[in-house]
Amino acid sequence: MKNFKALKEDLILYKWRILVGFFALLIVDVLQLFIPRIIKYAIDDVIAGGIARSNLIHYALWIIGLAAMIAFFRFSWRYYIAGTARRVEERLRNRLFSHLQILGMRFFKNHKVGDLMAHATNDIDAVRRSLGMGIIGMTDIIVLGTLALVFMLFINVRLTLYAIIPFPLLSFVVLRFARLIHHRFERVQASFSSLTALARENIEGIRIIRAYNQESGAIKKFKEASQKYVNKNMSLVKIWSLFFPLIFLFANLSVCIILWLGGSQVILNTISMGDFVAFQAYLGILIWPMIAIGWVTNLLQRGATSMGRINKILSNTPEIKDKGDKSIKKIKGTLEFVDMSFSYNGSPRPSPRSGTQVLKDINLDVKINETLGIAGMIGSGKSTLVSLIMRLFEPTQGEIRWNNINIKRIPLALLRKSIGFIPQDTFLFSDTIRANIAFGNPDVSDSEIYKAAKMASIYNEIMEFPNQFDELVGERGITLSGGQCQRVAIARAILINPEILILDNAFSSIDVEKEIEILANLRKEFDNRILIIISHRIRSLAELDKIIVLKQGKIVETGTHKELLTNKGTYFNLFKRQELEEKW
Hints:
By secondary structure, the protein is of the alpha/beta class. It has helices spanning 8-13, 15-31, 34-48, 53-102, 105-109, 113-155, 157-163, 167-204, 206-211, 215-267, 273-314, 382-389, 412-417, 433-437, 446-455, 459-463, 482-495, 512-525, 561-567, 570-583; strands at residues 335-342, 359-366, 370-376, 397-402, 405-406, 419-422, 500-504, 530-534, 546-551, 554-559. A 6-stranded mixed β-sheet has the order 6-7-8-3-9-10, with helices on both faces.
């Protein structure tokens, strides 16, 4: 199927392993067809009389020898075919994960994490099954089915024709059920994606759920989603439950036909008892390839459906292209925004169809050793502005320059390594405090980690933990307070020693005294670099060299804290509003 073309490279890489496994499977299929022949000769000799016990042992040894060879080659095809399918699964999962790492932020805004997790688990597992068991099933259908039929025809043509009367009905049932299974499997996968997304969302938001006393509501919602998933699975199970009994019904019809007609022919001496027993054995062998037609069809359809879902992700091209000048090894200098505008839908100009621009005609420069504050109401474009510096998004108009170089010319790795960013949504990994602080620079010494922690005013609190810097922080840092999480994130950014440090509302959960202490440390440490602070607390910006005020995506005011208060504009209104809130 066309969906599997994306795996062509992987299959070529393992072609010799697949061929070895395929030939081992062929040998198994051929060898097991000889056992009924040996049983036939043994039964005919016994009925004819005069056979010695040694001859029976001879037949038994032949069967044991064939069984041993079948066991060896069966292990071989399982190892090489099923094992190769596992290797392809690993490569596909790694490719999917690697591709997700380079996709733009717009992609993640439009896709649920739970859905992506389902792609990386259930969908890839379905692809692996279709590759491994698909090869095995197709081989059995073609080789085992054909040879079993040939051996049956060799025994008695007329009996063979009667025996296969139910098989067209069997094939129809199998193919019909395969289509039903395919559609219901798609619904199960979609339901699993939704359930995974809901589970992740509730676990990540456990603090909010508890804070608002919504545990029972969350449990009810999850039970409903879980029940929906069970219902979809039960719908699939009903088909499976009916599928196999019908198959065995038609298979046993063939057995009944052979028992009646074959038994009659044995009585009339048209065929020998050995032929009759061998014929029954071949019929039993033939039933599996007939069942496998639907089974393999179902596997391939599931795999194709899942691979199609994965291909949709792999077909997404990275929004941010890394076409930087590799000769640029270090970047330091003034940061400039030149006639820059931005819209999340990528349109340079607003229109009824394209939507509203988030940032409009931004002109700004921030020099070395300068601290910049960004103020504005929620939704004014503050976080978007700093995201553009790291090329998480691209400007739809104008450009951003660093040291008079368009940041698109700077290699992405160098650009992002030169910027320390603490987002307003603090994220810590489920690891130790040490590993979280050293995340951007894993090879640093303990003394450097301790220094960064002291600058972020978190060192003393870490030393009070039972395991100190080796304390596990739990999922998303759940064992730490909000302020502690933010200070660990600040230490992490400090440790990479960036040329630009950006704090996006990074003090929201930190008390004022700690905030003042951290800001003093940062101003002292980053005296020859650029420090950018976004804060909803106007007082946090009071000591900065320059402050810009954003309103509906535009810079409406620029100046120092005192200058902006004197102007009595938007900044002044924000300041007065916060004063009133603090009094209340």
